[in-house]
Amino acid sequence: MTWTDRLALFSTLDLAAIGLLLLCWLGISQLIEHPPARYPSLSQLMVRYRREWMVHLVDRNPRVFDAQILGNLRQGAAFFASATMIAIGGGLALIGNPEQIAGITNEFAMLRSPAFVLEVKLVLMLLFVANAFLKFVWAHRLFGYCSVVMSAVPNDPEDPNAMPRAQKASEINITAARSFNRAMRSVYFGLAAAAWLFGAPALIMATLLTLFVLWRREFASHSRAVLLAPTDGFEH
Q1: What is the DSSP-derived secondary structure letter of residue 61?
Q2: Cβ atoms 202, 196 nearer than 8 A
């Protein structure tokens, strides 16, 4: 079977569903990370608190509380990195055994498709998971770098190196959190991509549902409303 014949196994609706998936994934990421100035996302609001955290770090002694927070952030990144690595291994093992895939699909009439089609659908899902794995690993490393920079921040607010180093720590922390959030979005859309096994309409519905869930959490959640409440010194 030639590549032309294999591509013919996918309908126009399949291609449109994949395009919608990628468009929503990239579009919501852009909106979350670069929202309108008057309508910040939850992630952007947390950026301000991360910077404020490092300001208070300067004169906090001892810094056990800060170390515990950063340790929890690293543990979270490590946990998800391990989970995605296991998912990648399981997916590759499944792709490497087409007979097993065919045996599974025979149990469901609605999933009966050539092995090549099922493999492509699994690969799409694994690409999202692999992207998430790489970003979780990078976030874990950045949180580690942040801990080193935080340790180098003097406890004396009058020290000329105190605030510059605190600002560097905050920016590294923000970058790590951004990588972690991108990885989580890849996981969400990877789960949506799994719906393609049930056909293009299912993929479209799963994509739109994932898009709505992410939009709501970032722009219409109770957590965002709490952060926007005028009870502190931040200007929103």
Answers
A1: S
A2: yes
